[in-house]
Amino acid sequence: MVNYRGKGKAKAAHKPPARVRYEHSHPTVSCRLSKNEYDLLKQRLDDLGGVSFADFVRDSLKILQLRIPETREIKEKARRAGYDQGKKEHQIWYYCDICKQRIDVAPNSESHKALIGFMREHGWGHNRCHER
Questions:
Q1: Which of 7, 17, 85, 128 is deepest in the core (most CB within 10 A)?
Q2: How would you write the pLDDT of the chain (132 residues) with one tens digit per residue?
Q3: Does the reported pTM lie above 0.85?
Q4: Are residues 83 and 116 in the same domain?
Q5: Burial 38-76 (b: 16+ CB within 10 A, else e)
């Protein structure tokens, strides 16, 4: 609503402070739909017993909130997947000489240090370095 004050100057209508606070805490949401999408939405709202669009959105947000896992869970799942992939692709291991089962070498463990010492002691290195 706009009040006009002579010579084409417009003055915004005064809103009570309570109305300003309400509009600030309850922003308007709108969207554009094709005619077919709009008709489908109206049909769905009627099928739900004449639910208003605002109530439909509120209920949808509650349902979505239940379906969306916590960010912490997503991060932990991604971290675990990355760790497992890295472990699978880059872990150092060897077979037991007695039982022939695989032994995984943990970084900075005694086995890891022994492997490093063994390789250093026996002159392991790059092929190009040995060819010089």
A1: 85
A2: 555 555 666 777 899 999 999 999 999 988 899 999 999 999 999 988 888 988 888 888 887 666 666 778 888 999 999 999 988 888 888 898 899 999 899 888 998 999 999 989 988 888 888 887
A3: no
A4: yes
A5: eeeeeeeeeeeeeeeeeeeeeeeeeeeeeeeeeeeeeee
